[in-house]
Amino acid sequence: MSLAVPADAQFATTFPGFVQSQVGAGYVLVAKNTMDFDFCKPDNLETAHDHVAWFHNFWWVNNASTKTKLIAFFDTKKEAIVAGERMCMGYDGHLYNWAVYDSAGVIQDGKY
């Protein structure tokens, strides 16, 4: 099922405390196993707002079913995007979803 994203949906995340304390005025690259986004998605995401909120906060969930694979900090958006493009393909061919957020938690780019 594909949901149209409403114009008023906020494309932002709430950083965990340890990320917020390190991001400063820079950018955060975060990566997670691609399949986790399918296997761990709750069944009760009824609206596009629900899905957007879940997606932007799922990056930071770490439990028995899913773990964040990479959190890296960069001074510029370009550096973070290039790192995401280069680092998020494993040697075994396994792809990772990645996103770059600015210091306010607003998504800037990614592959997901």
Description:
With about 110 residues, the protein is of the alpha+beta class. It has one domain (about 15-105). It is about 30% helix and about 25% strand. The chain is built from 4 helices and 4 strands; from the N terminus they run αβααβαββ. It has helices at about 15-25, 35-40, 50-60, 75-85, and strands at about 25-35, 70-75, 95-100, 105-110. The chain has a 4-stranded antiparallel beta sheet with strand order 2-1-3-4, with helices on both faces. It is globular, with a radius of gyration of 14 Å. The two termini are about 15 Å apart.
Order of helices and strands: HEHHEHEE
Radius of gyration based on Cα positions: 14 Å
**Can you give the mean pLDDT?**
85
Number of domains: 1
Distance between the termini: 16 Å
Q: Order of strands across the biggest sheet?
A: 2-1-3-4
Helix content: 25-40%
Low-confidence stretches: none
Main sheet record? 4 strands, antiparallel
Structural class: alpha+beta
Secondary structure tally, helices = 4
The coarse silhouette is globular
Give the strand content: 15-25%
* Number of separate strands: 4
Keywords:
alpha+beta; 112 residues; four-stranded antiparallel sheet; 4 helices; single chain; 23% strand
Secondary structure topology:
Layout: H1 17-23, E1 27-33, H2 36-39, H3 48-58, E2 68-74, H4 77-87, E3 96-102, E4 107-111
Antiparallel strand pairs: 1-2, 1-3, 3-4
Summarize the structure.
The protein is an alpha+beta fold. It has four helices and four strands, in the order αβααβαββ.
